[in-house]
Specification:
single chain; 503 residues; mainly alpha; 3-stranded antiparallel sheet; 5 strands; DNA-binding; E2F/DP family winged-helix DNA-binding domain-containing protein; nucleus
DNA sequence: AAATCCCGCCAAACT
DNA sequence: AGTTTGGCGGGATTT
């Protein structure tokens, strides 16, 4: 339910780009549509439809399609509006994050592959690259119960990181969900840091891998038995792996227990990106990169091929773009990722995704396969003041969380931090905190929601927000009534604990 | 001819 | 054993 409503908010202004339009149609699967027979070809020759075009099956294009596909089901909205919502509904984030979880938010790998008209193998390629730069699409498919347990048991800080900054958390079964670009800034930041450290030789570089609390997948019966709690980390996979990388200097070495396949596409991607993040030059040709990434080895043919794969995906995200090296005719790639490159790390900055204009829904619908050069001329230093507005989602959320907590704790406060979508009007809020009975809580939340209702200049935004408020209310009341199975697993106390977890 | 890079076999890694 | 991931390289397409 609610699917239709949300979709209505999507701009979807039919562009006049006839050329692209065609592709777009194909890229956006309509609901009733089932298969996508397009290229159903058996192995060998491609008799039918000689319209076969290699380009139409490029990873890059596929990638953008994937994005649009995922976005289609509400998730698109979630991805972009998440920050907005959290500004006011910080405490509701869990709800937002899992909103419509079951059918819309996630898509089965097989289904996706089918709709895109490709083999699942390709999906893996894309996902791997995306994940390595923080655009995670792999999401734990936590059940409501599991998630709530999660919230109840861990510090809210962790929860927020978990929800927003998620950098590749995997472990799910064939299920993907689009989370957005929220994790990108952080991911890049970390990559850079790591890269610099490596460069300077020393530094043992701590293992990364955000702990992923893998909860059961099926709702029932997943007691958290272990009293201790926490320490659910579980590094998963590689105990060590990810060596300090092998630059030209040290080729064959490590290998404790076979460096497994840590020559994976994902790792390669990260290293590739690191090149851009550290290096002063901002363009590089693939074979050049291949050399750097793989100590001049002699097994490069393959490596280059992989780089092409990566480049395609990154390119479709506008993280990178291909250009002709001025001097030599050789094509090379240029990093577009982070706007300014002020080394000052204290700075927020890092305009995230689509360098598009306003609401970055640019590539939302798989269109724009041509990355028409945005007006991002030379060093676009047009972001001095914007910095504040384009902080990473994580940053926003953090602030958000703080302010909300504050507000929950005390009366109102003036320092509410707004994100990119500045509400026009002011907001008043005077929810009398104080946790009364459960029933009252419902009231409180409702009033809270009401008073927090922002006044967006943008009509669509306002509607959307309203929609969510509505959804939340309905969900909450239903829940409060106990009709929800969740109640069986834990009573109000738990929920409240999570809602008012400001202790 | 050189640059790209899709396709899908088949082996690890997980159930 | 069955399934899900995802190296890897042949060789088709593009440039």
């Amino acid at each position: 339910m609610a699917t239709a409503v949300v979709m209505a908010a999507v701009p979807s202004s039919s562009p006049a780009d006839a050329a692209e339009a065609v592709v777009m149609t194909e890229a956006v699967p309509s609901l009733p549509q089932r298969q996508q027979p397009v290229f159903v070809e058996g192995r060998g020759g491609k008799l039918r439809d000689h319209a076969y075009s290699r380009k139409q099956k490029s990873l890059g294009l596929l990638c953008s399609k994937w994005g649009s596909l995922v976005h289609l089901g509400d998730s698109w909205i979630l991805a972009f509006w998440f920050p907005v919502l959290t500004e006011f509904f910080c405490a509701f984030s869990s709800f937002v994050a899992l909103y419509n979880r079951d059918d819309v938010e996630s898509i089965g790998l097989d289904d996706a592959a089918r709709r895109l008209g490709v083999e699942r193998r390709r999906i893996y390629d894309i996902v791997n690259v995306l994940e390595s730069v923080g655009v995670s699409s792999f999401f734990l498919r936590l059940s409501w119960t599991g998630f709530l347990f999660f919230l109840a048991r861990f510090d809210s800080d962790i929860c927020f990181r978990f929800i927003c900054e998620k950098i590749l958390v995997r472990k799910a079964k064939n299920r993907y969900s689009w989370i957005g670009f929220g994790g990108v800034p952080m991911a890049l930041r970390e990559l850079k840091e790591r890269a610099l450290r490596e460069k300077s030789g020393l530094a043992p570089l701590p293992v990364e891998e955000p702990s992923a609390a893998i909860m059961s997948d099926d709702e029932d019966e997943d007691k958290m038995g272990d009293a201790d709690g926490d320490t659910e980390s579980e590094k998963l996979s590689q105990p060590v792996d990810n060596p300090s990388d092998n630059k030209p200097g040290a080729p064959r070495c490590r290998l404790r227990s076979d460096h497994r396949k840590e020559k994976s596409l994902g790792l390669l991607t990260q290293n590739f990106v690191k090149l851009f993040l550290t290096m002063e030059v901002d363009t590089i040709s693939l074979d050049e990169a291949a050399k750097l990434l793989l100590g001049e080895g002699h097994a490069e043919n393959t490596k280059v091929r992989r780089l092409y794969d990566i480049a395609n995906v990154l390119s479709s995200l506008n993280f990178i773009d291909k250009i002709q090296q001025a001097d030599s005719r050789k094509p090379a790639f240029r990093w577009l990722g982070s706007a300014g490159k002020p080394k000052a790390e204290n700075g927020v900055t890092i305009a995230v995704p689509p360098p598009g204009k306003t609401i970055s829904n640019k590539r939302a619908f798989g269109t724009e396969l041509t990355n028409i050069d945005i007006n991002r001329s030379r060093l676009d230093s047009t972001i001095p003041k914007k910095a504040k507005l384009t902080q990473s989602g994580g940053e926003i959320l953090k602030n958000c969380k703080l302010s909300v907590q504050k507000q929950l704790g005390q009366g109102s406060k003036g320092g509410f931090v707004y994100g990119p979508f500045h509400p026009a009007g002011a907001r008043k809020q005077e929810l009398d905190n104080g946790n009364k009975g459960h029933t009252d809580n419902v009231q409180n939340w409702e009033s809270l929601a009401a008073s927090f209702r922002p006044q967006y200049q943008n009509q669509a935004l306002g509607d959307l927000f309203a929609h969510y408020v509505e959804a939340w209310k309905s969900w909450y009341s239903e829940f409060a009534q106990g009709s929800s199975m969740m109640q069986q697993h834990f009573g109000m106390p738990v929920i409240n604990q999570f809602l008012y977890s400001n202790h």
